[in-house]
Design goal:
alpha/beta; 8 helices
């Protein structure tokens, strides 16, 4: 997870409102992820949230799962500061540890029951950093643990991707976003995004040793995948 995702204090403060306008199905994506995890862990679980942002996962899931604990990492100090404030307001701080930094700064033990990487991967350059991030997550999971990824995906030069991004722009405007801002965010030529096709995403899973990979969700250019860390040898 790169240290330079560009989420300064100004962007962090605007994130919660803007992401709901920008990403179709933002709440549904988090609810779907919770459904998958709760089917795996109806009681206790330790969850690694890679790229915790402003803490949406914790704030939505923790009240309904009192035996879940969370470790959330994010390279943006502005994001983790906001997450800490919101989590404290919700009375959830006792079950949450926040780390300002990348996944590799976390200790390698104890291992987690599950991990998520939601709406982060497209900010990570595809120059070896994506592989490294998947590998670091895999190293911190118990054998057979679920890992859920959600990201922008597609070939930015393709007509299909441009159509999906155009629909995303229209969605954002219909949800109250300023048209100029929507055009800026939904520009398929953005240089701060590192979007890759689904085949490349599957390669990243395989590179890190994940198994049972399947896509479980799509809304325009956002997709979500479920996978498992390698199971222990019998």
């Amino acid at each position: 997870m790169t240290e330079t995702t560009g989420f300064n204090e100004e962007r962090a403060k605007a994130y919660d409102e803007r992401i709901r306008q920008h990403i179709a199905g933002y709440e549904i994506l988090h609810s779907l992820t919770e459904t998958i995890l709760s089917s795996e862990f109806p009681a206790s679980a330790s969850l690694l949230i890679a790229g915790i942002g402003t803490g949406m996962e914790v704030r939505q899931w923790a009240p309904r799962h009192p035996s879940w604990t969370f470790v959330g990492a994010d390279p943006s100090a502005a994001m983790t500061t906001i997450a800490a404030e919101k989590i404290k307001e919700d009375g959830l701080s006792a079950r949450v540890r926040l780390i300002t930094g990348t996944i590799e700064t976390l200790p390698e033990a104890p291992l987690f029951d599950a991990a998520t990487l939601l709406l982060v991967l497209h900010f990570v350059p595809d120059n070896g950093e994506k592989e490294a991030l998947f590998a670091e997550i895999a190293r911190r999971l118990k054998p057979g643990s679920p890992f859920i990824l959600a990201t922008l995906f597609g070939d930015p030069a393709s007509t299909r991707y441009k159509r999906m991004i155009g629909l995303t722009r229209n969605w954002a405007i219909s949800r109250g976003m300023d048209p100029k801002k929507a055009e800026e965010l939904c520009n398929p030529a953005r240089t701060d995004l590192h979007v890759v096709p689904e085949d490349r995403i599957k390669d990243l899973f395989r590179y890190a040793g994940f198994i049972d990979v399947q896509r479980v969700y799509q809304a325009f250019a956002i997709g979500a995948w479920f996978a498992r860390s390698p199971r222990a040898p019998k």
